């Protein structure tokens, strides 16, 4: 039954996307939306295909992917470690938790001059901003996962006289895994946003920089082709992570 529901949801989602793209294409082709403002989706796809064929932006694409991967890994590992530490120290948590709750009200990019001084113009500053943007999502998910471990599992660990390491490996982390994976998903999404946005102002390479360069030079074809690439990469990665997340959630409910 669940497979049928997911399949139906998938078809509905696909139909909505196709309808939106079709309407957008028609609006651009009819002149309702001027081509000087937005290219039709078909032209964006053609431009993207040309970009991938020629390889003119391969260095920029690889640079962005490296920065996203580095930012996501640092955010997940460091965020998980900090989450475990904060969870183990109630007084520290009572002090920090209100700050975590209001963290995203602070515009992270206002710190970019500080990171420029610390890391210079380049990958270091970009990764630092992306980590600053994404790490709190992993910390919050780690805390939520550890909070929701059933007490009966902890009692079971006490009955079997498990050590702290055994309980963590055999009980705590598997029970908290769905929440942890949600944190990984969010950390990746925020890292992707942070890297692309930072490349607009802090880099001489990367997809974000290439989009800004194309915009400044009125190169709409390459600009929209690269924008489509960003959308497709983010959608593909988040869809893959979401599929894994759903499978983990369904296993936990069994």
Structure, briefly:
The protein is mostly helical and 254 residues long.
Describe the secondary-structure layout.
Blueprint: H1 2-29, H2 41-54, H3 58-88, H4 90-101, H5 112-119, H6 123-147, H7 151-159, H8 164-202, H9 207-216, H10 220-253
Helix pairs in contact: 2-10, 3-6, 3-8, 3-9, 5-6, 6-8, 8-9, 8-10, 9-10
Shape: globular
SS elements, strand count: 0
Calculate the terminal CA-CA distance, rounded to whole Å.
14 Å
What is the SS-derived class?
mainly alpha
Helix content: over 70%
Largest sheet: none
Task: Give a verbal description of the structure.
It is built from ten helices and no strands. Helices cover 83% and strands 0% of the residues. By secondary structure, it is an all-alpha fold. Helix 2 crosses helix 10 and helix 6 packs antiparallel against helix 8. It has two domains: 38 residues; 213 residues, MetI-like (MetI-like fold), CATH 1.10.3720.10. The radius of gyration is 22 Å and the shape is globular. The longest helix is centred in the C-terminal third of the chain and has 39 residues.
């Amino acid at each position: 039954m669940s497979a049928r529901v997911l399949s139906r949801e998938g078809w509905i989602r696909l139909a909505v996307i196709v309808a939106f793209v079709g309407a957008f294409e028609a609006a651009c082709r009819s002149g309702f939306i001027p081509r000087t403002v937005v290219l039709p989706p078909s032209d964006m796809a053609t431009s993207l295909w040309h970009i991938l064929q020629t390889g003119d932006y391969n260095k920029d694409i690889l640079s962005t992917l490296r920065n996203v991967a580095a930012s996501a890994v640092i955010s997940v590992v460091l965020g998980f470690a900090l989450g475990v530490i904060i969870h183990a120290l109630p007084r520290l948590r009572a002090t920090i938790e209100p700050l975590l709750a209001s963290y995203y009200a602070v515009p992270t990019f206002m710190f970019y001059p500080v990171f420029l001084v610390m890391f210079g113009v380049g990958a270091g500053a970009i990764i630092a901003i992306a980590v600053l943007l994404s790490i709190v999502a992993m910390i919050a998910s780690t805390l939520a996962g550890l909070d929701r471990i059933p007490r009966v599992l902890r009692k079971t660990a006490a009955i079997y006289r498990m050590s702290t390491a055994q309980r963590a490996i055999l009980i705590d982390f598997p029970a908290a895994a769905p929440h942890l994976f949600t944190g990984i998903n969010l950390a990746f999404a925020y890292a992707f946003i942070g890297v692309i946005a930072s490349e607009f102002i802090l880099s001489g390479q990367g997809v974000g920089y290439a989009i800004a360069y194309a915009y400044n030079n009125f190169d709409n074809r390459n600009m929209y082709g690269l924008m489509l690439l960003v959308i497709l990469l983010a959608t593909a990665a988040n869809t893959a992570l979401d599929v894994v997340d759903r499978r983990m959630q369904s296993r936990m409910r069994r």
